[in-house]
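Session log. Operator J.P. requested a structure for one protein chain; no other inputs attached. Running the standard single-chain path with token output.
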Amino acid sequence: MKIYKNIKEIDRKFQNTVLTIGNFDGVHLGHQALFRKVVEISGITSGDRVAVTFYPHPLKVLRPDNPPKLVSTFEQKAELIEKAGIDHLVSIPFDMELAGTTADDFIKGLLVDTFHVADLVIGYDYACGKGRQGDIPFLVNAGSVYGFNVHVIPKVMVGDTVASSTNVRKLVASGEMRKVASLLGRYYQFRGIVRRGKKRGGPVVGFPTANLNINPDDLCPRTGVYAVQVIHDECCYGGVINIGYNPTFGDQGLGAEVHIFDFDRDIYGHPIKVNMIQRIRGEEKFESVEALSRRIALDVEEAEAILRKEEGLVRSCRHG
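Structure written below.
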């Protein structure tokens, strides 16, 4: 998949374009339905498969005092969009000038003149242009004027819950990782670089851990202990993670410590990916290090039992 960080980077003329547009934060089941439709139409028309998104997230510009915490980084989003079969991802810088563009100018200048759209695939709640002028009836009318088809994808429901980025954020924040996975169609994953901690995990507690910083701007699961899958250097391992403030030792900053099963490599400074499988318990303050160690041993047993039953774990990794 070719990624363009702005319009000026586009070095080709798109042909008979099948295009979808949105923020695609998390690339949940609703977004995946859009991409499937793009691929389906392109298979008939042989048109270019294009996804258009924005960076930063528009609400970070329009609502800077209370921006959303994002489900996925741009890197994750691009990986998932490529897996969905899209050939070209165009990320348009979002600023107040773009926010003030009328729907007419947005459609004519971007969709028609830049992308030569033949088929536009949008979600049921999509609107473009200043004040969301370009709603679905507006877009359908524009399509009849400029000669492109508009395909509206209905909301995707999982039980009684809409697959939406907003709902994913709420569920992640409450630690309901099973429900999160049902809306994403995969595990919720966060990534980080292993940092040097206070070296208490192995020598003091008896369970060595890889420590990760948590950026306050990132979407963080509810504090507590979780069964996880850790991916490092294309290999997968089971594990148990604590997200929180380490109250037993009186730490202050929010962090994550993951104990990786059957793993003894030095990975300081290495990137790892953590798939969040299931919350085991909340974070607790223990009366002693010994009590903490006993509780972690039980957490490990429970996490191992959870992972043994898990059918959705990544099977392509070299290490089971």
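Operator note: The mean pLDDT is 92.
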